[in-house]
Structures are given as structure tokens and as C-alpha cells.
Amino acid sequence: MPLLKNFYVDGFHFTLETSEVVHRNIETISWLRPWCCRYDLFTRIPNLKRIGIQGQMYFENENSDGFYNFVHLEQLEKLSIKRWDLKLQYSGIPWKTSFLPNLKKLKFFETRLPWSDMRLIGMLPNLKDLKLIHACEGREWKPCLGGFCQLKRLVIKSWTWKYWNAVGDHFPVLQHLELSCSSLREIPIAFANITTLELIQLKYCWDFVLTSVKLIQDEQRSYGNEALLVRSKYIRTTTKIVWR
């Protein structure tokens, strides 16, 4: 099938074998199992733009080795990973240069990543949209300076994440922030220094998180920036959940 562009499979009992043919027209593949992320496959689909990987949580044979084979997908623009128990490493990976240089959208879902691994994800040079859906373990996230230089949209859903030790320089061009985090204590007031912010959206967060967002909005207005929009739904109080 030399003209095939989009390939989708829904099921776990599936293995994609490779041949000597280079499939230059394939642009989309989903959902692959982690063990299909091999050098011999990725080097034969050089123009792939979108890929989805789905594993089984805690499956002992699904290690992280296949993740590093993404280095061969230089044209990849969108990557979705579900239930793959990843352990990311810095050594030998060209995170800032030639590792996924065209990736714009990245989604992790139930991947059990430590928050500290976000320092590596932040190095991806053209990442603009990041979704973390129950993806990270731990109660605290301390981002590193110099990362997420192109990130415009950040979506986080978490039941356990509590502390966000961040400043505006950690997300210098962020426009949209969407949070559904039932344990988060606040959004740092330093986010008022992100002049590109257009929207902060909260869902199932505590009322004191909404209060911190209102402070950010007031601070931006004091700078003459009226563009920041705040939306909230199902805000939690000490006694009940209410609509705001």
C-alpha cells in the first residue's frame, strides 16, 4: 500500500512488522504498543507527523527504550502517549537540538512520570501544546529556567499535585493555562509577569486557587493588561462544590 497515509488500529494484540520498503507517504499511526517503537520501523516511515502509543500500566516488558527511537522521527509534529510507564534520561539524548525538533503537540496520559522529568520535556525546541493528564507522580513541581521557550498552551489534570514552585520565566510565552487539579494549593503570583497570558481556566480546583488567579488578573490589570480572561467551573469549597 504505497499511497497509505493514515493507519489506525484499536486493540492490544497487534504487532507492526517492517519490510525493506520505505513508506514515505505515511503521516499518521495510532495506536502502537511500546514494543513497536523500534529503529527498523521508524527509519522506514521518515515523514510521519502524528503518532499515538498506548501501553498497559505496570506491564513489566514495556520499558522506556523505545521512546529514544523517536529521534528518527524528525518530521513528527504530534505525539500522544497513554499508559506507558516511562523513565526518561538526559544522557545521550539531544533534547535541545535534534530530538523531536518539529514536535508541537505532546500529550501524556497515565504515564507515572516524575515531575522532575519535565525539565527534559521543556527542552524540546518547538513544543507549543503540552497536556499532562494524570501523567506525573509527586506533590511538587519545580520547573527549570530555560525550558518551554515556545509553549503556548498547558493543560494539567491531577488528583495528587499540590505545590507549583514556578515563576513567569519558566513559561515565557504561555497563553492558555487549563487546570483540573483537586489538590493544588495556588498558582504562583509570579505568573502575573507572563504578559502573553490570555486565559486561565480552572475546573474542580479549590476556591483558594481561584483567589490566587484573581490576584494574578488584578496584577496584570495594574500593568494595563486587560486581556487575561479567567474561567472557572465546579470550584471546590471546604463544604461543597459550587458553580462559579
Descriptive account of the structure:
This protein has helices at residues 39-42, 118-121, 207-222, and strands at 6-8, 28-32, 50-54, 78-82, 105-109, 113-114, 129-133, 136-137, 140-141, 153-158, 163-164, 176-181, 199-203, 229-233, 235-236, 241-242. By secondary structure, the protein is mainly beta. The strands form four sheets. It has a ten-stranded parallel sheet with strand order 1-2-3-4-5-7-10-12-13-14, covered by helices on one side. A two-stranded parallel sheet has the order 6-8. It has a two-stranded parallel ribbon with strand order 9-11. It is elongated, with a radius of gyration of 20 Å. The mean pLDDT is 90.
What is the topological layout?
Blueprint: E1 6-8, E2 28-32, H1 39-42, E3 50-54, E4 78-82, E5 105-109, E6 113-114, H2 118-121, E7 129-133, E8 136-137, E9 140-141, E10 153-158, E11 163-164, E12 176-181, E13 199-203, H3 207-222, E14 229-233, E15 235-236, E16 241-242
Parallel strand pairs: 1-2, 2-3, 3-4, 4-5, 5-7, 6-8, 7-10, 9-11, 10-12, 12-13, 13-14
Antiparallel strand pairs: 15-16
Summarize the entry for a quick read:
The chain has 2 domains: 1-105, no CATH class; 138-244. The chain is elongated. The model has no long low-confidence stretch (mean pLDDT 90).
